[in-house]
Amino acid sequence: MSGERYVDHRVLKAFAQSRVNVPAEEAKERRRQVNHLRERLENYIAAHPDFDLVKLRASGSTAKHTAIRRKSGTGSDADVAAYLRVGDPAVDVSTVLTWLEERCREVYGKTKVAEDFKPSNHAVGITMRGSGLKIDVVPVLYTGEPDDRGYLVTSDGIKVLTSVTQHLRFIEKRKAVAGDGYRELIRLLKAWVRESKEVDPQLRCKSFLIELLVAHLWDVGWNGKPLQVNDYPAAIEQVLAYIVRTGLKTPIFFTDYYKASAVSTTTEPIQIWDPVNPENNVAKYSELDRLRLVNHAKATLDTLTMAAYAATKSEALDAWREVFGPTFPGE
Q1: Quick one: which of 129, 210, 226, 309 is 20 to 30 A from 48 by CA?
Q2: What's this model's pTM, rounded to 2 decimal places?
Q3: What is the per-residue DSSP string for 67-81?
Q4: Mean pLDDT throughout 127-139?
Q5: pLDDT tens figures, 51-64
Q6: Is residue 307 a contact partner of residue 319, using CB atoms and an 8 Å limit?
Q7: pLDDT, tens digit, for every residue of 2-27?
Q8: Would you call 112 helix, strand, or coil by DSSP?
Q9: What is the SS3 assignment for 117?
Q10: Contact, 98 vs 123, CB < 8 A?
Q11: Do the Cβ atoms of 149 and 163 come closer than 8 Å?
């Protein structure tokens, strides 16, 4: 593809700064509310030691600086990993989510209503009414391993190895070489996914999946070229072309923390392996989910082709609005 005539890197960077990136004040407020929750939980759990609280760690997109700003009327997520040590080895670990939800309710007392707490498969979600911020508190069973390695516990008691520290190092290692454009590209792609899900609510594409696709293309390049993190239109086209051409049928894994031989085998249609856990496929999607995502990436790529060869600036902007919504270019 050649000649982005009207929408170039400069235009997408300005859009990211005005409409996608989390504003400094909002980021400050997120950190304040997360820290407030951490302090209250630390104090409360210390006095109720059913599970011993070892430490709390900021995690997820906010900690990795890949979070995007919330749209009007919608909440944004911040994640806190609560590292817990179990005193009784025979305890039913599937109770940890219920236990943590009860502790969170007690921490806030009558200042919050029941609807503000929503447990998911692996976290307790808490909605802050004033800001709309949703904080997910994720219990991690800690066994004393280094680098904050521990086990997420799902609602049915399945334990999944993770490490907040290693996940942060994973992205920071690549950003340190690539520059700030690395994380801003991830944010732009997340904004594309969010807009896409508004059009097709059945579309499945986790934020973590986007982060790992960008990491993979940064590591190995695409079509003989490195990932163009300093040319956002080109980089977005590279990611979309990768999805379309491979059909997401090629397994993706990373050898930062384990050898390739450690990766598990599975028959799942998409295989993108957690950088810190070679047994955790983060893309447990159906074949229909895979086809839906690949087809949507193809439609978006076709739209960007039209934008690249648009006869007028208005036509080019209209095409990009199909990708990022009606606020594009956000000037």
Answers
A1: 129
A2: 0.92
A3: -BPPPTT---EEEEE
A4: 84
A5: 677 888 888 898 89
A6: yes
A7: 444 799 999 999 999 999 999 888 88
A8: coil
A9: strand
A10: no
A11: yes
